[in-house]
Amino acid sequence: MKSVDIVVALAVVLAAIGFLLLAMTAFRKKAQTGAIRGPSGRMIVKSRQPSEPGPPPPLVAPPVPDTPEVQVNRRMFLNRAWLLAMSVFGVAFGATSVGMLWPNKISGFGGKIQAGAVADVLKAINSTGYYYNTQGRFYIVTYPHTDDPTNMYVKAGVAKQGLMTLYQKCAHLGCRVPYCASSKWFECPCHGSKYNYAGERQPGSPAPAGLWRFALDITGGQVVVDTSQALSQPPAGTDTINEPPQGPHCINIGAK
Ligand code: FES
Questions:
Q1: pTM of the prediction?
Q2: Which are the contacts of 54, defined by CB distance < 8 A and separation ≥ 6?
């Protein structure tokens, strides 16, 4: 059972106890006053007039007189019962709220994604020009400047050991940007924005900047990409690889 379920179950039980206490308190109060509900729904208080003389009462201890002390004790009991019920309800309400707000473990897009072994990522790049992860909606491409600690992508943690991530979402209006095998750029089919192999916006594109990226971690030869936050979108005019199109464009609108 998840921790959220346990918290919610606890909250429900506490709330039920609180309501039970409230109901018991109200019932007891009603019994003391002898109130009943009439046909019209209004409360009728039964008078406690002595009826015809019956058999003599059994020999029992005389009832405790309703002294001011007894009245204070009864009032204290009701006050405390009410306070306890409200406290339980407050705890239950708080626990339910915490349970609803408790962060769930995120898997898939929005969390950390295993992209696989570096060797497999490189194999995909050598075969098609890029590695693509459907679940994480990102590309991994090769990037030549990962040994430079002053490089903006290295500093942002989106480029490591010769690899860099690229978020597939176009910086213009968010279409998925595919890779163009002939130009070796990323070219958006929606309005023709073009990005070089490093995902940097090329002149003439309607997109205001380059592609976003995700943090990349390489441990024990395994690549893990954190898709919880898009990072390091290069502003227009950034060009760290200075690589012209390697062939014809796939999209013939916008930048050439
Ligand atoms: S959404 Fe990509 S160019 Fe408009």
A1: 0.63
A2: none
